[in-house]
Specification:
Metalloprotease. Its EC number is 3.4.24.-. With about 375 residues, the protein is of the alpha/beta class. It is built from eight helices and seven strands.
Length: about 375
């Protein structure tokens, strides 16, 4: 039987499979320099990385042949059956992340909690959930696809704006430059796109997306930059509006339009605790690399939308029980009393149950 002090020591050495109050506290303390990266090569420029939407081409082919297949986008950036119920997104976090990485992830999730009605909550028994892990680059499916759904945030992806971008995919949003009306606002320079990346510039059909009446947004966090996937260092996309080419893909946070669409998709303003979208603010040239990543399962063979499907993965259940945590009823974190009000909140109820059992009355 572990004594209380030994139990606490073991607990602090474990990276729990969810974010704790301490992670969110650490995230709040992060300075801008901890969230952004300056002067590094963009991820999309590395030959290893392609796009960050997993299985995109396959889903489009399925849409053409059978519009009822699961995993196919329909409208509002994803059909209502692919939205997360009530905006609640269960997740499991890999234990491979360091304390500083967990803090950045927490900071990004907190931005959703503060600006939208989306809530990322530690998974208990939900069959559909995000599994956030270091797999191979940065990528996500679009919307809720069912079962365990990987969001890969590898070592080169742990930046605030990259996490915001990938989670927005998981919530149900395509890239801005994939809008059906893209060609009215952007010219794609196909010749400058490197081999194997042309599918990253295909438009989503009108039946797959809903812009909610929002004008094309060059400042969207979901927009690629002008040289994405360039084979020769020249622009692959040029804005039709003067001065906007240099703006595309340079945002380091949600744009006002991103928030309006996200809140419209989940009817956030019809719920309590939703917050008004802030007015537009001047764009600041970002210090981060664009969130573009590995889609090695998208085997481009020269024809649009060509992909080799992976075998389906059955939903799995993760047992969150940690053997020694329930041996002694105690608080594992010295500041539990400061977070007592969080014991029954949807976002932190499960973490608080483990690390602040006594304070939260779970004994």
């Amino acid at each position: 039987m572990y004594d209380e002090e030994h139990q606490k020591t073991l607990c602090y050495k474990i990276n729990l499979p969810f974010l704790t109050p301490q992670d969110f506290k650490n995230g709040i303390k992060l300075a801008a320099r901890d969230l952004l990266v300056n002067g590094l090569k963009s991820i999309w420029q590395l030959n290893k990385y392609r796009g960050d939407v997993r299985g995109k081409a396959l889903r489009r082919r399925q849409f053409d042949s059978n519009s009822n297949l699961r995993g196919v986008s329909r409208n509002a950036r994803i059909g209502s059956q692919y939205k997360w119920r009530d905006g609640v997104v269960p997740y499991v976090l890999s234990r491979d992340y360091s304390a500083s990485e967990r803090a950045i992830i927490a900071r990004a999730m907190q931005a959703y909690h503060e600006k939208t009605c989306i809530k990322f909550v530690a998974r208990t028994h939900e069959p559909d959930y995000l599994y956030i892990k270091k797999e191979d680059g940065c990528f996500s499916d679009v919307g809720r696809t069912g079962g365990r759904q990987t969001v890969s945030l590898d070592d080169g992806c742990i930046y605030y704006r990259t996490i915001i971008h990938e989670l927005m995919h998981a919530i149900g949003f395509w890239h801005e430059h994939e809008r059906p009306d893209r060609d009215d606002f952007v010219d794609v320079i196909w010749y400058n796109i490197r081999a194997g990346a042309h599918s990253q510039f295909q438009k989503v059909s009108p039946s797959e997306s809903n812009t909610f009446g929002e004008r094309y947004d060059y400042r969207s966090i979901m927009h690629y930059d002008s040289k994405s996937f360039s084979k020769n260092g020249r622009d692959t996309m040029v804005a039709r509006e003067p001065g906007m080419t240099s703006v595309m893909g340079k945002s380091d946070d949600f744009s006002p339009s991103d928030l309006r669409r996200l809140n419209a998709l989940y009817n956030c303003h019809g719920r309590p605790n939703s917050r008004p979208v802030p007015p537009p603010s001047p764009i600041i040239r970002p210090l981060v690399r664009p969130p573009v990543i590995d889609d090695e399962d998208d085997d481009y063979d020269g024809a649009p939308f060509s992909i080799r499907p992976s075998p389906p993965r059955p939903p799995i259940r993760l047992n969150l029980k940690i053997p020694f945590l329930d041996l002694i009823c105690t608080d594992m974190w010295k500041d539990c009393y400061k977070w007592a009000a969080m014991c029954r909140t949807s976002v932190l109820e499960v973490p608080m149950r483990f690390v602040c059992a006594r304070t939260c009355g779970h004994c």
